[in-house]
Fold each of these.
Amino acid sequence: MSRYNFKETETRWQAVWEDKATFAVTEDSSKPKYYVLEMFPYPSGNIHMGHVRNYTLGDVVARYKRARGFNVLHPMGWDAFGLPAENAAIANNTAPATWTRDNIATMRRQLKGMGMSYDWSRELATCEPKYYKHEQKMFLDFLAADLVYRKESWVNWDPVENTVLANEQVIDGKGWRSGVDVEKRKLNQWFLKITAFADDLLAELGNLNRWPDRVRLMQENWIGRSEGAFIRFDLVGRDDRLDVFTTRHDTIFGASFMAVAANHPLSLEMAEKNPGLKDFIAECARLGTSEAAIETAEKMGFDTGLRVRHPFIEGKELPVYAANFVLMEYGTGAIFGCPAHDQRDLDFARKYGLEVVPVVAPKDADAASFDIGTVAFTDDGLHINSDFLDGTTVADGKADIARRLQAAGTGEPTVNYRLRDWGVSRQRYWGCPIPVIHCGDCGIVPVPAADLPVALPEDISFDGPGNPLENHPTWKTVDCPQCAKPAQRETDTFDTFFESSWYFARFTDAQNEDQGFSRAAANYWLPVDQYIGGIEHAVLHLLYSRFFTRALKQCGYLDIKEPFAGLMTQGMICHETYRDESGKWLTPEQAEGRAGVTIGRSEKMSKSKMNVVDPEIIIAAYGADTARLFMLSDSPPDRDLDWTDSGVDGAWRYMNRLWRMITEPKMALPEKGAGQPARLSQSAENANRAIHKTVAAVSGDLDKFHFNKAVARIRELTNLLDDLDPSAGGAPWALRQGLEAVVRLIGPMLPHIAEELWRELGHDVMLSDTPWPDVDETLLVDDTVTVAVQVNGKLRGTLDLPKGVDAGVAEKAALELPRVIEAMDGKSPRKVVIVADRIINVVI
RNA sequence: GCCCCUGUGGCGGAACUGGUAGACGCGCGGGAUUCAAAAUCCCGUUCCUUUGCGGGAGUGGGAGUUCGAUUCUCCCCGGGGGCACCA
């Protein structure tokens, strides 16, 4: 019995594809284009199972679309800047550049061993000056277009990584990588005006109909648009006012207090001469943004002593509290409290004994007796206790108040966003230098375009604390481009999300030295038709890329604003976990055959739980095709996938079975291209129909990325072919048809063995260059159909009936079934429901 | 707290817009082949009941709509995710 030699076969076909540049593409107006892209990896050292899954999914799409006649762009590159390189530099005394390039070499070799259909001529690494010089130019263009600004601001400082984190990178008050508590510091930062596009970023989500709903929802929540109003309250005894943002301006008559953030300018000012307030502010700062602290903290406030005048009630004054539940970062950092209609305000008012006046009541409630207990009333209703608003709805009340505020010049309707501008400065070495120069006389001066790139020095030292760019003897010293006096380079580098915000465009024209990409190439290939990657990038990377594309459009780089037309997010790879008697984690190898091992539930593969399986070992033992098949079988792409040894065995078994069925067929196969015999036996005819049905079904499954279903259908056809009776007329012909179909259908998933078997079947043209099989539509429709027969909704039998048979005939046949007669127990049918070609339900 | 997703055999998962629940695979049981094993092949495999034919129950739980519900509606329970004093 022959055994499939995957090692020899896989390396041989990989070499063929590489020699023939099978997957290299150029713009070609004769074919529809299709751009499939997987999120490029950070070159951490080795590929892991998550990569294998991600890139297998993308490769199936790429190969399938190619077979369907598309001009497919399928590139790969490296997200090569980032902290781990610096950490490795410190730990191993290697230069970040060397470490990164070595890792890229390793991972490139591993990816090539997976048989991915990449156009390697477009490979890029973001840490190379020939890549980042273009984004330095983009930054300068953004600066000129007023999409960039610099401001001193409170930032999230990660004390372990010694760097600033974006709000998005702070998770539960901790650094997203280091996991330690984030501190607040004030630094000068570069910001990109993502908020300038907030409305458009939100509105266009509605058109991204090939994105998962949940990702769109997450971005929608992140942008956090809310319609409301600014209201200016006059401060009593002072010349200034307190600005407030609210979405419930209709409840203004129920206002009983004001609350400002602890770090609001007014709180800070009043704290100067109020030690109690000062202590309160310090306490709020101690609480910080740490999730656990805030969650358990009850609503607290401190009277600043200030009072404001109510804008609509003559002579009414409201106290101004500093409160721990008001955020300086949102709105104006100040609110008016209306306890009756906001739960937080109610909790606060009850605690400090403030007035609770209901100003909205349910339509059928009695205004005089309507009362608020411990639950705020937040539904719609009619206004009460509200002077001129009485009897109006919430919506009408809002409109009326807004009109009056505007007329009086004390406020106006406004839209507020949760989204904040993107801080891109990082106090890090291994990133793209921000191309500006600080001059004592001229201030901030952009580096002239002709002087780009501002290249990172590679002769650096990590011996001292802080940023090696600061410590480099000469790098930051430069003459001012404007006045020629000695000046200094900016030593901050970009957030690495900067590089990944445009790499998809670079792939369209990766070798272009003069520009990041030509407009023509970008306009031909973009948007990415199918983007594939992890759900963890649902907000950060995807939102930044959407913004960046808009900014590039505004600066004349390209003509689209949405970079990714289709998005698929893949689930995690999980594996059982193992512990020994003492509770220590064990690797799967250590756990095998060992006594006293506790098997834990399947969890995401992670080094800390030691439940990782190295793809390289799997590929060495079973080959890339087996790993790919396993990744595609069973679990739909967006769900988590359980890695099991038996599942891998199953995939391996299928490969060998297919191999045997073709290299040692049960019956002599007719020559390639042999015509259909004049007469087919029933079983050959059925097989032929099954082949065409399978091709149609698998095509549909792949169009919808239902890879697990496609695999199941191909296996089903394989089973049927294996059961073909050699003595039946036309069986050998049907078998050849079927085997060829199976090989072609499985080709995008198992490219190596499929190429090999395709050649074994006598074909000279590579499978990779062979179009997708055609379907004979006439064979998809059967002349008879199996109809279920129920009595009172319970299945009592089935009938094989001619398709489209007359209802009367069907009913008669159904009522004659012995088991139907039995179930009817002598009663006559009250009603017979007949759904043509589907079901007959006899109701008695 | 708010929002979203999800719940089907021992396991991963199928089931088109309401129409034969459990495709396909894994695992398990039995058998063939073998000196023996590996590999391979065949049969069985939701549960209860029945010697077999059958019968009954069944898609987290409870109600509802319908001739008919895994699918639609409402309530409850479990699992997962996002956001969070967002005004």
Amino acid sequence: MAQSFTEENYLKHIYKLSRKSDKGVSTNALAERLETKASSVTDMIKKLAAKKLVDYKKYQGVTLTNKGLKIAVDIIRKHRLWEVFLLEHLGFGGTEVHEVAEELEHINSPELVERLDKFLGYPKYDPHGGPIPDNKGVFPAPARVRLNELETGKKTKVMGIAEHSNAFLAHLKKLGLELGQEFLLKERFDFDHSVEIELNDKTIQLSHDVAKNIFVAY
Amino acid sequence: MAQSFTEENYLKHIYKLSRKSDKGVSTNALAERLETKASSVTDMIKKLAAKKLVDYKKYQGVTLTNKGLKIAVDIIRKHRLWEVFLLEHLGFGGTEVHEVAEELEHINSPELVERLDKFLGYPKYDPHGGPIPDNKGVFPAPARVRLNELETGKKTKVMGIAEHSNAFLAHLKKLGLELGQEFLLKERFDFDHSVEIELNDKTIQLSHDVAKNIFVAY
DNA sequence: ACTGATATTTAGATAAGTCTAAAAATAGAT
DNA sequence: ATCTATTTTTAGACTTATCTAAATATCAGT
Ligand SMILES: [Mn+2]
Ligand SMILES: [Mn+2]
Ligand SMILES: [Mn+2]
Ligand SMILES: [Mn+2]
């Protein structure tokens, strides 16, 4: 039972939006992401729910079932593998790639994906650092990135630090930012590159100096 | 004004069928080729005619306009370039390739095609000998193939001979098969590999021995 | 708890592509 | 020239995906 391009794009974006919070993905958030209308989203969600690819209760947002998750992750795998090919083998520049990958990700041939993966040398990350799940849907150990480089809106986790002074360690401990601590990067302020994060229901600010010395999951 | 996958497939098959004879392509021939119904074909032809991609008069079959021809040839270009990639770089076997190329040929990105062509070293023929048109739609000088290897139903032309005895030359002359002579390969008989061809409104038989010594346009 | 704003769903319409069944045109044979 | 078989077109219906406008539910501030 193969999916249409449209269904696949919905599943992928439900997946991506669901990573930003624990609740179900809202109709409007999906509509904005997919550049379509909320009513169209409702229609499609119903269809996906009928196919058991998402769980859906009216007005309560939508979440992926295991079946839907598997498909979403596979689309991401294909998208990122194609981006590696386009950038590293065809010499594309950074920006043009995404749009083409957006089409190629829907080519339906498991054998093609396996052979492409092998041809590329089984890459674990795409050229932008995005992790590439393997053919069982398992993502590689998360890549590290400095907190000052992470996109806002991402839920992440402290993976390590770049500064090991006692003063810095004490500061982090006081903030509750110990190794493994999960938090949400809410905002970055342009004027001084400070960031606002949310952890354990508290919202706190971190200076650029602090943020750039914290490695977080990408 | 981009075409849908469906429209592109129609244009490609109109092109291929039109090579077999001079008349317009019949509705039934297209329906059979595209594994669809004649009524669906009529609907689509009307749509393509409205877009000026084909010329169409009721009951008179369909032919490509210059605009439609350009698109059809570009699809063939993409199909064959992808087949070169799949066979030579990803290590696909011979049969699985066509189906995947059938999807890839519709990926819409002129830059992708140019870069792929360069990556492949600007091949002139796909691994089955099919000529690959360049980015202006010009096919390379026709490849030669022995007549015993040509697909039936193809219109072709005598390009050369592999046997230069006086006896053979005289035989060909008597049959009317001189260099440059165009003809249609109508049928091949399995039991003795003899072939039936049509030239100048006459139908004649050629033995396997004769056929294998004639090079024809592929 | 009420009320206005916002988010979501429903109702009904449209366009693309397909199908079946019936009507119309063409081609072939007497 | 007429009849018949074949081809092609039309009419009407269905599915998928989309939209606008209207109805309904939820959320937030008082
Ligand atoms: Mn991308
Ligand atoms: Mn896509
Ligand atoms: Mn092919
Ligand atoms: Mn195709």
